[in-house]
Amino acid sequence: MAARRLACSLLSRSRAACSPSLSRSVFGGDRIHGSASGVPRGLTTATAIEEPIQPPVQVNHTQLLINGQFVDSASGRTFPTLDPRTGELIAHVAEGDVEDVNRAVIAARKAFDGGPWPKMTGYQRSCILYRFADLIEKHNDEIAALETWDNGKPYEQAAKAEIPTLARLMRYYAGWADKIHGLIVPADSPHHVQVLHEPIGVAGQIIPWNFPLLMFAWKVGPALACGNTIVLKTAEQTPLSALLVSKLFHEAGLPDGVLNVISGFGPTAGAALASHMDVDKLAFTGSTDTGKIVLELAARSNLKPVTLELGGKSPIIVMDDADIDQAVEVAHFALFFNQGQCCCAGSRTFVHERVYDEFVEKSKARALKRVVGDPFRKGVEQGPQIDEEQFSKILHYIKSGVDSGATLVTGGDRIGSKGYYIQPTIFSDVEDEMKIAKEEIFGPVQSILKFKDVNEVIQRANTTRYGLAAGVFTHNLNAANTFMRALRAGTVWINCYDVFDAAIPFGGYKMSGNGREKGIDSLKNYLQVKAVVTPLKNPAWL
Amino acid sequence: MASEANSSAGDGLKLPEIKFTKLFIDGCFVDAVSGKTFESRDPRNGEVIANIAAGDKEDVDLAVKAAREAFDHGKWPRMSGSERGRIMMKYADLIEQHAEELAALECLDAGKLFSVNKTKDVPVAWNVVRYYAGAADKIHGETLKLSGEFQGYTLREPIGVVGHIIPWNFPIIMFFFKVAPALAAGCTMLVKPAEQTPLTALYCAHLAKQAGLPDGVLNVVTGFGATAGAAIASHMDVDKVSFTGSTEVGRLVMEAAARSNLKSVSLELGGKSPVIICDDADIDMAGEICVAGSRVYVQEGIYDEFVRKIAESCKSWIVGDPFCPHVHQGPQVDRKQFEKVLRYIDHGKREGATILTGGKACGETGFYVEPTIFTDVKENMLIAQDEIFGPVMSLMKFKTIEEAIERANDTRYGLAAGIVTKDINRANRLSRSIRAGIIWINCYLEFENDCPFGGYKMSGFGRDNGMHALEKYLQVKSVVIPIYGSPWR
Questions:
Q1: Which ipTM score applies to this complex?
Q2: What's the rounded Cα separation, in Å, for the pair B93 and B346?
Q3: Measured between CB atoms, does B484 come within 8 Å of chain A?
Q4: Model-level pTM?
Q5: What is the pLDDT of residues B397-414, one digit of tens each?
């Protein structure tokens, strides 16, 4: 119960953060310049938010998914999921709690211990993942609409980048399922040593609201490829899309009980999963504060291994030899993408003093052009923030920026009187010790800082409890290499940002978490290593 | 053994229409430059089933030119691995959709059992393409630990234009064992199928185009080894040749590579693979496994019982029309092989080995041979040394494990071996002691996508299957660059 109380006090909202997997095309000049110049001035930040567009999708699944069946929660309770454009109700969703998590774990346990999932060949598992990817493609627009409705992200972003990336990620992991290799290792004595990589068992996975389906893919893909079974808890802000795609997964041939989906809250369902004695592994993406609780619950229960993908305050460093226009555009994207709700958002932009004023001016011009509005409208770059709580928090940080003496370059206020829209906001003359330069804001607020030399900026960039990502803009090869090694972050993007391919590992240094998602490294999160040793009698070689 | 040779296509099965008989170069089916053709024959009766374009040096030049262009300037190596993987997935789907037709073509051309083609060979083909589709985005270089103030890394780059020369025994499987990893790696290629079995390769070239493979990436030149094959092996603009076939031809391929541009070579050659059946073996399992081994060593304690059982089981072995579903064994591939097998049988008799069962041709027409077992075979007999490539088994007796190891290794080959025992120490010892590329313990001929296959000694070098096969089609580039002020080394 102590664990439960601790969870209640701190897990109040599993706010969470992680970035999208985006194809490089999103960065193409076509999109950026095309949409900016193609949109009339009247539709930019100053626009009052009009009547919301009716989403072209129906909500068909609101129950928990346990053992292949949609079921009500044990308590019969539901909670509302809201439209961030208006704060109004989309649907009532079954609210999972301890008893529902128990039922889901029993189903997952049975599916793991009894099969057929882990007993299938890797190739058979891969075929089901491939079929799932095909179904995602087939239902792309419907899934994207649901994602936008529940989350508030631009529909074009969901439909053209995120849902195709979901399919891409599932195919990537499908390809791994039949290529998971242990080593045969040498022994000093006459022994034959095999290393088997076995699935861990029942994986508990807790995912955030900022990229609901991409986070689904990062978690579910490797776990299933390796032969695990899953209890997944979605964020209470965005429960809908995971239910829809999980249903498609079963259509693709996923056996019952292999993937169970619980909608609900962190302190109840999330805590139950993290402290469950029969969950063999936990993966969490969300805030650093909640990550601490999750790790603690695992320690207090069955010592389940935990991977954490947490917050960040990622630096972007713009050298004086950089292509300034490109740096402005990419740094703008790095911060404002997804309404600023990315764990790896470039939220500390360090600019060399020689190009500082130019950079600030151009960033301001770019932010003023940013198209904010109903995410279902074509050409919109920025929708509303996820909910009231985040909305208020961001406005509070903006006030803190002004109060601490930073220069408000543009923005600074909400847009309209309904929903959670915030103006793209830029602060210049930001100092390291200001709150807006230290804490994760998770909103459309860019902080631009000034630096003089490389060693100084390395030291300042690393002075943070976080270490998720970093960006560097320079044409100088030696400077790029110096930054590459000196920055203590899990990803360093050089002359680019937010490039998320399936094979690129992603994760944090320091309090940004541990473990890596995507790439071959992600498989380690879901595999046990077993060494098998047997004597050799008169072997031909050792 | 029962003989059902000479029946027409079994169970009223319709013979497949032969749609593709020309060379496939740069996305088009074309006649040979010379206009020449050769006959492809039905091994059941020796009748001509199609006239196939006879590719020669000029045709190889054209195919290499197309592959070179596709590699140097085309999309294929410049696509992301995942894009190549998508096209390969579509290719696999198309093979699956045309399974029946491919199985029938293979049966007609190679005399291989239709039911086995349909349930084994053709599924192996599409499975291996899917396996490498999933591998195309998993080709990793490494970052390196260098001693100086340097940052180093490796890139694994596609090797370029690949020439694949493949045999007639598993035509469609060999086609994809070679083509699929080379495609995943980003290479372009030309394939020369065996002159005995050109049909499925041409059909698969057609499917590749349907799947969206860019023109020039996959070319198929049908023809003979001495002409088309030699032209590939000695071509100055082919970067790699990958050959499966006999050891003697493998030597010619390597020689031609050495004399031309030192192209990298991989060879999957002949074998004389031993099966070792220990005293403690499950004798029924041993009987099933040994059918594929050409040298079967049986420990003395169970030798007599084993001989009795194997002779008995041969009686129910049905040789006949490969289109018939209950037939175990079809004809040999062509007259040449048929005659060669019979010559070896005669030689065995003359050398003093004892015929336990079989020993002659089967039926009046076609190239059928009785399943033949020799006992009293000595290591120095030709039938125990040479690859016969026919249904001829040599049974030998051994006393100790040491002796079995020595005799099993007493061969210039090292492709595979089988071990039948229930004892873990014996299994482990034999598996390390036998010099062969694959060891099957209490099983045999288990080919898996993820399991490398290839030879020791004169059975060749390089591996098909698994992630290892990609190595053949990649080259490693190291990149080294100074790095200043690194916080770690």
A1: 0.85
A2: 47
A3: yes
A4: 0.89
A5: 999 999 999 999 999 999
